[in-house]
Amino acid sequence: MRCADREGGFSLLTILMMLVVLASLALAGMNSSLVQERMAGNARDRNIALQAAEAALRDAEADVEANLGMDSAFVASCTGGLCRPPSMTSASPTSRPLWQTIDWGASAGKTRAYGSVTGATALPGVASQPRYFIEQLPPLPPPAGQSASLAQSVDDAPQAFRITARGVGVRASTVVVLQSTYIKQ
Fold first, then answer.
1. Which terminus of the chain has fewer Cβ atoms in its 10 Å neighbourhood, N or C?
2. Boundaries of domain holding 77
3. Dihedral angle sign, alpha carbons of residues 167, 168, 173, 174
4. Into how many domains does the chain fold?
């Protein structure tokens, strides 16, 4: 009888070890699923922030086309989201980009909210509406093969603007900043 008792104890120990191994595999599989779900959620949130920033770029381009020109009030202090780049504003120009130093908050008045000028409807599902600012760049040289004409009007020359937009995803911590150069003919 003692031999049978030993065999029963060995089977129990073997089954318990197999259960521990199976439980470990199940936990590892569940952990992997959770990590993949988080990664998919983060990718989705970043995509929403990217789309919000893209929408702000298009809104700013519509703003430039409809409202802005050479006589618009572009200043170094970025009042109302209309800025002069640091490289054009002082005797000792700097090349540090404005988007790194500007206050993106609505209370600062240095940026424009999405739709504030164009009347575009608010974007759903974002933590905050995208914002942008517009920099007036130096006048463009004449196209290749053409000489600069003294008789050419300043109003006829194409004008370049740099637009910087900031979009936020579902979570306020997900932020995308995009820039484009828009040339108004």
1. N
2. 2-184
3. negative
4. 1
